[in-house]
């Protein structure tokens, strides 16, 4: 650790001690000793510890692993805030990002979002406060940008749209400053996706068009063509919308290339089919959308999260075409997983579908009764949109 880094830590420790109520080094030493737990090794005397505090505040030395947890307990701050973030901290952020992605696959956005938000805010606060070793600045910004994208996705899945939109803008800024263009592109796909969800097609179109002018890796080009096509569908431009989906399909014909970023693993033909089906529904062509939704449900059979959302989207299409026999079959499948459903997009979509079924005169009583019962069992709607 450089002398400048040690002095920066010392200045922060001095400021902590001098903050009201101001305490002498001896008083601070007493507080640190009192914060020791049963597993803490024997600490030096108050006098010796006060002298160590003096050396730490001067930047001659920094608190070791025994003393950092004690500072965290006394100040009420996390241990990470008590010293400069280093390469180990950056690696911890990246490992946390991977863990959050795995947890998302198991439990969904609503359950995992609070954990992700805390992790992102911690990393972002450290960047904002400048409490990191200068040599890790770019890597820390890149890792924090990735954490922001993951957090924004989880908020989106939990149907916390306002928070998702705010967080992805923060993440985009971090990735851009870090020079992480691959992650920046991912965040732009998120912004376009969310614009579509919020029925802002012109905004989504601007985002997608601006990126498609670049020489993109195949799968990155495919996802932006998908966003482009969906935006055109919302704008009721069928010919150009379907042409965009054809371009996306062409981009997906080959295998993943070395140019494709790691995050494009999920950009495949099933994803294309899923969004083309949605585009057809936005064009009012529910009948053409049904077999595509059926194909996606079959492709995703056994998947915990997307399987539920895909079932809901298929049910929505079936209700619109009044295929009550098939709708009843899908409702029965949904009934088998409703107990494990969390708040978020899927639950909110199902609530709207069940309400529509209840207001449809020609819906059979068996379908409307089942929809009414399942609506009652759905978790409470998300509070923030």
TrEMBL record:
- InterPro entries per record: TPR-like_helical_dom_sf
Domain of life assignment? Bacteria
Where are the annotated segments for Disordered? Answer: 1-21
Q: What is this protein called?
A: XRE family transcriptional regulator
Q: Which species is this record about?
A: Actinomadura rudentiformis
């Amino acid at each position: 650790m450089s002398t400048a880094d040690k002095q920066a830590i010392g200045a922060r420790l001095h400021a902590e001690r001098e903050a009201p109520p101001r305490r002498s080094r001896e008083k601070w030493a007493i507080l640190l000793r009192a914060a020791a737990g049963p597993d803490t090794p024997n600490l030096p005397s108050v006098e010796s510890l006060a002298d160590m505090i003096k050396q730490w505040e001067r930047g001659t030395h920094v608190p070791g692993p025994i003393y950092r947890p004690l500072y965290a307990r006394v100040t009420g701050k996390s241990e990470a805030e008590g010293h400069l973030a280093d390469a180990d901290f950056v690696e911890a952020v990246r490992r946390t990002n991977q863990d959050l992605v795995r947890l998302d696959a198991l439990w969904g956005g609503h359950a995992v979002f609070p954990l992700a938000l805390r992790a992102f805010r911690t990393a972002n606060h450290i960047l904002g406060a400048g409490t990191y070793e200068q040599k890790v600045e770019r890597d820390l910004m890149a890792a924090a940008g990735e954490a922001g994208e993951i957090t924004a996705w989880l908020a989106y899945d939990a149907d916390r749209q306002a928070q998702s939109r705010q967080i992805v803008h923060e993440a985009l800024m971090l990735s851009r400053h870090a020079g992480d263009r691959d992650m920046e592109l991912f965040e732009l796909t998120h912004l376009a996706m969310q614009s579509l969800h919020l029925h802002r097609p012109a905004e989504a179109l601007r985002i997608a068009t601006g990126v498609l002018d670049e020489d993109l890796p195949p799968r990155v080009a495919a996802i932006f063509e998908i966003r482009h096509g969906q935006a055109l569908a919302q704008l009721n431009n069928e010919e150009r919308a379907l042409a965009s989906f054809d371009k996306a399909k062409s981009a997906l014909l080959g295998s993943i290339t070395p140019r494709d970023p790691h995050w494009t693993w999920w950009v495949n033909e099933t994803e294309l089919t899923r969004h083309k089906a949605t585009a057809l529904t936005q064009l009012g062509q529910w009948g053409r959308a049904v077999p595509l939704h059926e194909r996606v449900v079959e492709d995703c059979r056994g998947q915990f999260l997307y399987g539920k959302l895909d079932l809901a989207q298929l049910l929505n299409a079936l209700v619109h075409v009044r295929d009550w026999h098939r709708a009843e079959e899908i409702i029965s499948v949904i009934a088998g997983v409703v107990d494990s459903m969390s708040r978020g997009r899927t639950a909110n979509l199902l609530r709207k579908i069940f309400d529509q079924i209840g207001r449809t005169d020609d819906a059979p009583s068996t379908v409307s009764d089942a929809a009414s019962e399942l609506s009652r069992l759905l978790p409470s709607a998300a509070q923030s949109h």
